[in-house]
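Is this the right way to post structure tokens for a design question? Let me know if I should format differently. Anyway, here goes:
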């Protein structure tokens, strides 16, 4: 006997996070409904114009802003960036090169370097 499989749905906030967009910037019909797994896959495979524009110009959610600036989300907060930024604002911030941004980029680079070192050490230990 085979059971009926229900359609998997998610809240708009979850779908926006998976799509890498800022929920308040999405169309009202997206914000007010639920998104099925099939709809999410379709949005990822064939993004509508609004999704393409949001991904290009923003506003971008903090994880995307952090990635574009090369810092952590906590680094953004320490730098005073708590809201979503547009691509233009991100580029202006990069061009301005504030001290906090340079410091956070250096911190992020050190964290990545340490992560690589630990992975290498653990791999060597596992191989021994």
């Amino acid at each position: 006997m085979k059971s009926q499989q229900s359609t998997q749905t998610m809240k708009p906030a979850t779908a926006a996070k998976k799509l890498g967009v800022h929920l308040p910037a999405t169309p009202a019909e997206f914000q007010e409904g639920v998104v099925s797994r099939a709809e999410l896959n379709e949005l990822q495979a064939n993004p509508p114009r609004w999704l393409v524009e949001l991904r290009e110009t923003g506003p971008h959610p903090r994880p995307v802003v952090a990635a574009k600036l090369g810092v952590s989300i906590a680094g953004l907060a320490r730098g005073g960036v708590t809201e979503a930024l547009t691509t233009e604002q991100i580029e202006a911030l990069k061009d301005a090169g504030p001290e906090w941004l340079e410091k956070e980029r250096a911190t992020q680079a050190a964290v990545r370097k340490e992560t690589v070192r630990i992975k290498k050490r653990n791999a060597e230990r596992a191989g021994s």
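Format looks fine. Someone answered above. Worth noting: The beta strands are 9-10, 35-36. DSSP finds eight helices and two strands in the chain.
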